[in-house]
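Z., the sequence and structure:
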Amino acid sequence: MKTTLLKKIIKNALAEDIGKGDITTFATLTEKTSGSGEFLVKQDGVIAGLEVLETLFKIGSAELEFVKYLEDGSRVSNGQIAAGITGNAADMLTLERTALNFLQRMSGIATMTALFVEQVKHTKVKILDTRKTVPGLRELDKLAVKIGGGTNHRIGLYDMFLIKDNHIAVAGSVTKAIKACQEFKSKNNLTAKIEVETTNLDEVAEALACLPDFIMLDNFNINEMSKAVKIIGGKCLIEASGGIDMNTIREIAETGVDFISVGALTHSVKALDISLEIKTI
């Protein structure tokens, strides 16, 4: 991601947490106290966010030295040390929670993504993320998905046409919605792809007649999804979506779809258990 955006995200996070100052650390430590710390992984998973922490500590303190022992995307196990830090102990304590918030969330997303990717590795399917991200942290959430082996869908409303059920309702039909997007794309000389959500086989057939780039199969059962794949016959790329979890993803992938989007990667993720163990030196 762009360095300027990363720095902005980090500065906002630090300002939110530190405010006028870390009064507990000011009260308990002298400015000259030195310390060392280790980022201890307490759960098996995939580490993500170490490069973010590298930037965070550069922004947050001129007196801390951060060292990565692993690279983002590395498999980690309980008891492993991911990184170390030495220098001013007060700065370390002040930056601790913000650093862990980034590292734990991103590692949780990468870990969950890797689990889903593992389930479909015998197929052509790519696992997609969604826009169901923490406001202001989308770039980091989506970076964590990539680190975990997933594929980023659209970043926002500006880089791809995605015609949802409400767009169809307002436009009047699947056909009218697709045609409107195709005309808008042509008129404005855009390169953005067009995807349309469908909820039944009749809508699939209607969408296919307009040849969008992608057809989404939203909450289709396995039988309907298999039929839809045959109807589309490779003329459009196919995304499966809607309440997909670890129990259903393998069977869905085997229907022949090209992509499976999983909102849970970012909206229901559990942070990976990581702590920063600090001692004075």
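Residues 89-119 form the longest helix (31 residues). The mean pLDDT is 97.

Let me know what you think.
H.
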